[in-house]
């Protein structure tokens, strides 16, 4: 099927990949609306792609070897052990992942979006109005335009999803991720090829090296725990949000820093506590499922469609795979109805499975943590297998294989 006008709402990783998919599928006119007017490449958080998922996405043409990355080969789970600098390892496992900086990966995808695609920064979509054979978008500046299809790649606060399924928003999982990046990478164990999970009662912190986009590396970490239940300590997290440095309550930060000082091995505590405040932020953790990935002439991709907690290492993978699935449906379909039905049939179950697995992992790693100090490798292996019950090499931690769809 060739031709037609397509709007992509959201211009981050999911949006750029979706614009590329629409172009390859044969759309006649493509417009991307991105609400941010600052450079998205300045977002410096880390993401990781499983080697197998990377290879599938490389063959599909959505990632490439020249995109800056850092290799990860092993994950070490450690608990504080007195004053032992690195603590005691309670479990080790293979970790065949490629670590990326979010901003540099977005930059590479943005560069691959064809020139004929209109990419509009600073364009906030405020209204999505479907009719029988198209969708009208209204922007904050008064601009409006009608399209044959509108694709929501606008994340967990999606305005497109709200038009499709009113009230179907993300649900707060009850805990947060405190994130940070720093240049403190000298002397990392195993030359920075290990991902480290520091575990403590009520949570864990994942720490790994990412490229900085200019030939060097940065340290990326995210600490998951329940925030203290103190009135006024943080805003209402039930409403999907994120809290940049300027909005972080000083008492909340003090509590988190005390948690690190009391529970982390000295080496890792120092690296978290030395992270500049301006490169830290709070990311509340959410769940989201939708009944369908399509409705009429509207489509959802990435976090606009489903949000899986970050513990499965598959969020960015899913966004890129959604784009590849949309491209395949576009090429195979003979009209809009068939294209959208094919896409929904291929992705809805995948999203639901990832959300369910991520909930199990969140329960085991944050909400109901084991007695880490009593663990060794045998106990750790049993605990890990219980989290991953029902999954295999092609579907589970690291995302879902394209081959199995």
What are the SSEs and their pairings?
Blueprint: E1 5-9, H1 13-25, E2 29-34, E3 46-50, H2 51-60, E4 70-79, E5 88-101, H3 102-112, E6 118-121, E7 125-131, E8 134-139, E9 144-147, E10 149-152, H4 159-164, E11 171-182, E12 194-200, E13 203-211, E14 217-225, H5 250-263, H6 266-273, E15 280-287, E16 294-295, E17 298-300, H7 315-332, H8 336-367, H9 377-387, E18 395-396, E19 399-400
Parallel strand pairs: 1-2, 1-10, 2-6, 4-12, 10-17
Antiparallel strand pairs: 3-5, 4-5, 7-8, 8-9, 11-14, 11-15, 12-13, 13-14, 16-17, 18-19
Helix pairs in contact: 1-3, 1-7, 2-7, 5-6, 7-8
Compact summary:
It is built from nine helices and 19 strands.
Can you give a write-up of this model?
- The chain has about 400 residues and is an alpha/beta fold.
- It has 9 helices and 19 strands.
- The chain has an 8-stranded mixed sheet with strand order 3-5-4-12-13-14-11-15. It has a 6-stranded mixed sheet with strand order 6-2-1-10-17-16.
- Helix 1 packs parallel to helix 7 (about 315-330), helix 5 (about 250-265) runs antiparallel to helix 6 and helix 7 (about 315-330) packs antiparallel against helix 8 (about 335-365).
- The radius of gyration is 21 Å and the shape is globular.
- The protein starts with a strand and ends in a 5-residue tail after the last strand.
- The model has no long low-confidence stretch (mean pLDDT about 90).
